[in-house]
Specification:
By secondary structure, the protein is of the alpha/beta class. The chain has six helices and eight strands; from the N terminus they run βαβααβααβαββββ. The chain has helices at about 10-15, 30-35, 45-55, 65-75, 85-100, 110-120; strands at about 5-10, 25-30, 55-60, 100-105, 125, 135-140, 150, 165-170. The strands form two sheets. A five-stranded parallel β-sheet has the order 3-2-1-4-5. A three-stranded antiparallel β-sheet has the order 7-6-8, with helices on one face. The longest helix is centred in the middle third of the chain and has 16 residues, at about 85-100. Bound molecules: zinc ion. The site of zinc ion has 8 residues, from loops.
């Protein structure tokens, strides 16, 4: 029996963490947008160069999969919290997972990436923090009148006060790899 090769998809926070990333025999992959965020000369750049020397692969997902991830993150309420870079990273993980020849794990400290990844049944591990232990959906509540909204809006249409985001629909997730 063949064991599936592990592939880690790393985000900018994984590079910025400055922690030595040693994933053994696993492949390390990131997206072009992540690599574009690394400015030459800094400490992050050194860490990035080091990862490249160790065989970091840079890939870009297809547009269809990016659109798919945008739709999902809209549903979970994470869309506004995710940059194009984040969306691209999740899309790449999803695309590689569908090839089915390897185990795909996203390495990120970003809770919104983790939340969307979890919704898509993608595995993730965090670098610094313990990963989220609950799947959640963002909700929105008016600071003034307290009315709850499903969609992300800035100003309450009823009283004109500011809307803030709240966490709703907590569910325990089973595949969190950082459970302690
Ligand atoms: Zn209101």
């Amino acid at each position: 029996m063949k064991t599936m090769k592990r592939k880690y998809i790393i985000d900018t926070s994984a590079i910025f963490s400055g922690k030595p990333i040693d994933l053994g025999e696993s492949e390390i992959i990131t997206t072009l947008k992540v690599s574009d965020e690394i400015t030459a000369g800094g400490r992050d750049y050194q860490n990035f160069q080091y990862l490249k020397e160790k065989g970091l692969i840079i890939l870009t997902p297809t547009k269809n999969v990016i659109k798919e991830v945008e739709k999902i993150s809209n549903k979970t309420g994470d869309k506004n919290r995710l940059s194009d870079t984040d969306i691209e990273l999740i899309a790449l993980a999803l695309e590689l997972k569908r090839k089915g020849d390897s185990e795909i794990i996203i390495l990120t400290d970003d809770y919104s990436i983790q939340n969307v990844a979890n919704t898509l049944n993608l595995k993730f591990e965090s670098i610094n923090q313990a990963g989220i232990t609950k799947r959640f959906k963002w909700g929105y509540r008016c600071r003034g009148c307290g009315k709850k909204f499903k969609d992300s809006i800035k100003i309450c249409p009823i009283c004109g006060a500011e809307i803030r985001s709240i966490v709703s629909n907590k569910k325990i997730i089973n595949n969190c790899s950082d459970k302690k």
